[in-house]
Structures are given as C-alpha cells and as structure tokens.
Amino acid sequence: MKRELIFLIALWKANLLAAMEFRAAFISQVFGMMLNNAVYFIFWIIFFDRFKQIRGWGIDDMFFLFGVVAASFGAGVYLFGNAMDLANVIANGRLDYYLSLPRPVLLHVLASRSVSSGLGDFTYGILSFIVARQFAPDTIARYILAVVLATTTFIAFMTLIQSSAFWLGNAALLSQQASNAMVTFSLYPITLFDGNARLILFTLIPAAFIGAVPAEFIRQFTWETLAQLLGAAIIMLALALLVFRRGLRRYESGSAIQVQM
Amino acid sequence: MGKIENRNPRQSAFIGVQKYFAIMRTQIINSAAYPLDLATRSLMIVLFMFIFMQLWNATYRAMGQSTIADLSLSETMWYFMLAETIVMSKPRLSVTISESVKDGSIAYLLNKPYDFMLYQFSVAFGDGMMRMVFNAIAGGTIVWLMVGPPPSFSGIPLVLITIALGWLIDFMMTAMIGLTAFVTEDVAAFDWIYQKFVLILGGVLIPLDFFPDWIGNIAKALPFAYATYGPARLFVSPDLTRFATLVLGQIIWLAVLGAMLSLVYRRGVMRLTLNGG
pLDDT tens digits for chain A (261 residues)? Predict the structure, then answer.
C-alpha cells in the first residue's frame, strides 16, 4: 500500500512538471475552468432569484451541491485523468506499455495522465463550499470525506464504463455520453426526479452519489447518508476492478511501438 | 487559357460560390456516412429535455401559474428543444481552427485556391446540418411525447432562415476565438467561457423572458441572443414582425462581427510563424 502511494505521488509530480512546461496554457486552463463554472452558476443565481425555491432546494443548497460535484470531478480528472480516456487506451493497444512494467496496471494507467482543467474545477468546488459559509470543523470534515467518497464513486464508474472497450472495441462515444449524463444529472436538485428517474440516478447512472447524497451528508450528518456514500464507493470500486480484470484477460496486444513521455 | 481569360466577373463569382457549396455537400455526405454515431450523439438532447421537463414542470407547479412571462410549459419546452438543437448541432469551430494553427496545417490550407474562412464555414455548416436533423428528430420526439405538439408549424421556414443567420453569427465569434491561437498557446479556456455565455446569455438554460427586466434587455441586445434565443422564440411565437426585427438585428451583428473577424484574420496571418521540418 505504501509503495503504491509513493508510486502515485511520483506519477502526479511528473504530470505536474510536464504541465508546467507549458505554463501559460496550464494557468489559463485552471483559471478558465474556474471562470467557466462561475458563469454556469449564474444560471442558478438567476433561477432562484426569480423562483426562490423549488421542492425544498434553494440557492444555498446549490452552493453545497456545486461545492462537492466540482471538487470531486476536478480531483478525479486531475489525479486519475486517464479514467476519461481509458476506452481509447484499450482500443488503441496502448495498455502494452503498462502491462510490461512491475506496477498495478489499472492504477498506473489511470494516474499516468492529469487533466489540468481539473484543478480549476477542484478549486472552484472549494470556493463554492466557502461561499456557503459553513465553517464548523465537523462540516469541513464531512465535506472532505464527501469529496473523497464522491471522487472514488465517479472514477470507479468511469473506469467501469470505459472498460466496456474490452468487449465493444470502440466505446469512446458511449463513455463520453455516460460521463456527460453523470455530471449533468448530478448538478440538478435530486428532488426534481421521481420514481424510475430517481431509481436510475441511484443505480445505473449513480449521479446521486456524487451530488445530492454528499451534499445532504455535508448539510447534516446521518448514519444513513454515510452508509449510502460508503456503500456506493465500495460497490462501484469493486465492480470497476472486477470488470477491468475480466476485460484485461481478453486484451490483445497491438503491434504499435509506444513511447511514454 | 482563352476560356479563363474570357470569363466575365459574374461567372467567376458564381464558380467561386459553387466550390463552397461543393465543400458543404461533401461534408454532409461525410457526416451521413456514420448515422449510428449521429444517433448516439443525439441521445444527449433527449437527456437534457428530460431534465428540463422535471425542472420546469416543478417550477410551473410551484408558481401555481399556467404561464410565466407569457410562455406556457409546453411553449417553454419547445423553446428549449429548438435552443438545444441549435447549440448542440454547431461544430466546435474554435477548436478546429486553433488546432490547424497549432499543428501548422493552416499553411497547407492557406495556399489552396479558396478562402480559409469560407472553407471553414462551409465544412462547419455541412457538419452541423446532419447533426441538426438528428437532434431535431430526437429532441422533437421526446418533447412531443411529454407536452404534445409544438404551438405552430407555420413559422418553420422563417425559423430555418434565422437559424442559418444565427449559425453565421456563432461561426464568426468562434472563429475569432480559434484565431487567438495565432497569439496564445491554447484557446480551450476562451472556448469554455464562450460556450457558457451562449448557455446563459443565449437563453439556452433559461429563456431570456424569465430574466429580471434590466439584465434581460441587455442580454437580448447581445449577439448570443440573436444566435439562439431569437430563432427559438420565433419558433414558439411565429410572427412576421418578430421575424423582421430578428433578421435585421442578425444582419447588423453579422456586419459588425464580420468586420472584426476580417481584421483579426488579417492580423493573425501576418503574424503567422511556421517552423519547418
């Protein structure tokens, strides 16, 4: 475990140094993404200014929601950027490089790329939480735990979907749609959805576990929400590992020469 | 040789325009070669329409009104359908242009016997048309199932004209963003922020009629509204006066943005430095 952690830190350091070679682009992506999220949030400011409250949700709830979704999405794509591109890695035979090295394949492939704009999302998430003005130590602790668990669920879900490339070949479009669906659903109040839609958001597209449930957990501790978050993260992670390992058995090496820089 | 020299200016202009239609036609055929891809991409509009229905149904019920700013729930949903179709069908031109500047392939395109900008527009228009068909079918089907038929079909020919002009407005703005690659390393951040301005100030997430008056009036004067809000609003409330006002505004913005684009393009090409290899 300690070895893998040291390995991960080394990978993240290498990614950061590589990104800083193009400093202007890196900084513009980070700040650009923060501004991008802020402009998008204006919609909710206008909406709740006009309509005040919808099914028990107001603007303060949206600050919490954006705080956790943006931070967990940002942390996920920055630390494990290849979770968004795993289907292409598999389909193009680029797993060969990782298979030949004495490190856990999935961990290596996921962490070997960082999406710079993810830092912008992460920072924006924290700022959104700060704007909600809930600075009690237990609230902050719940926020950190919620972000960690939501990140785990998100990355595990993306790994699961992207691993379908082992069977489907070209799964990039499907993965992109799944990612869009996950993020889009997570940014709307869960109380808008009834019946079958809510069931989908807690199962097939577990957007509730990266948005509404963590936001609820941050607002108020209950054992039920903690159990939901932990359960979702553990189940998603277990499924992702299982599916990836099964898929890896089917993987056939490509003959392309790959240089990892 | 004699044939070319004897060609009159009108013939030359006709042939000049013909080639861009040929490029557009080729791009349409290209896009149509992958119908499953187009169909899969159009699932996103189904998702958005579903979410919007949940949100706005809850909003109308909470307000206890059958109309908000003279728009019923049905009209609002059809408005969103068209606004989303317009936005989701247009290609990411800023990315295309900035990539061609960054990887140097612009040099290959600049010395071709066609205008670079008109070529990009023809390709973008061809690409967008096929996507629009699939998005309109998918979005229209789900909205029809949820709220019934659209308020009117009579305005569709006028709406198509305004969509074309709206796309031209959007093209000019995104082309300018793409051309900033002549100066900056990366245009992604500008593109993201621009897309968000389109969503908010173009009325894609919330109709401009629902804005507070002062911000709504400002937003309605900006080019984003002429690209998206205007055509979508015309669709749910077809009216010749509204059409004429919209087209006039679009032509004015096209003139302003066209002049700006021309300047940015000429300045950019003058600065262009290519590394050989």
Answer: 888 889 999 999 999 999 888 888 889 899 999 999 999 999 999 999 988 888 888 998 999 999 999 999 999 999 999 999 999 999 888 898 899 888 899 999 999 999 999 999 999 999 999 998 888 899 999 999 999 999 999 999 999 999 999 998 888 888 888 898 999 899 998 888 888 888 888 988 899 999 999 999 998 899 999 999 999 999 999 999 999 999 999 888 766 666 555
* Alpha helix positions (H), B187-239: 188-201, 213-221, 223-224, 230-236
Q: In degrees rounded to 5, what are phi and psi of residue A21?
A: -65, -25
Looking at beta carbons, which residues of chain A come within 8 Å of B58?
54-55, 191-192
Mutate to test the interface with B, among A50, A161, A180 (most CBs of B within 10 A): A50
Inter-chain residue contact B41 with A24, CB threshold 8 Å: no
Q: Is residue A194 part of a domain?
A: yes
Q: Tell me if residue B68 falls in helix, strand or coil.
A: strand
Compute the nearest-CA separation of A103 from chain B (Å): 33
Q: Is B62 on the interface with A (CB under 8 A)?
A: yes
Predicted complex ipTM? 0.84
Question: Do residue A55 and residue B62 have CB atoms under 8 angstroms apart?
Answer: yes
User: pTM value?
Assistant: 0.88
DSSP state of B227: I
Closest by Cβ to A54, choosing from B62, B185, B188: B62
**Is B206 within 8 Å of A47 when comparing Cβ atoms?**
yes
- Count up the domains in chain A and report the number: 1
Neighbours of A231 (CB within 10 A): 13
Range of the structural domain that residue A152 is part of? 15-250
Nearest by CB to residue B188, choosing from A29, A173, A185, is: A29
Nearest-neighbour CA in chain A from B2: distance (Å): 53
Domain ranges of chain B: 12-271
Q: Which residue of A has its CA nearest to B47?
A: A181
Q: Which amino acid is at B174?
A: T
Helix H or strand E encompassing A141: helix A137-162
Residues of A with Cβ-Cβ distance to B43 under 8 angstroms: 177
pLDDT digits (tens, 9 = 90+) for B114-139: 888 888 888 888 888 989 999 999 99
Residue A148 backbone dihedrals phi, psi, to 5 degrees = -60, -45
Residues B227-253: pLDDT tens digits?
999 999 999 999 999 999 999 999 999
Candidates B59, B186, B199; nearest CB to A29: B186
Whether residue A33 and residue B59 make contact (CB cut-off 8 A), yes or no, is: no
Taking CA A172 as the corner, what is the angle to CA A166 and CA A175, rounded to the nearest 5 degrees? 90
> Is the residue at A2 inside a domain?
no
Is residue A10 in a domain?
no
The predicted pLDDT at position A191 comes to 87
Tell me if B59 and A51 make a contact (CB, 8 A cut-off): yes
The one-letter amino acid code at A240 reads: A
Taking the Cβ of residue B6 and every Cβ of chain A, the question of whether any pair is shorter than 8 Å is answered with no
Sign of CA dihedral B235, B127, A165, A229: negative
Please state, for a pLDDT cut of 90, what percent of chain A lies above it.
63
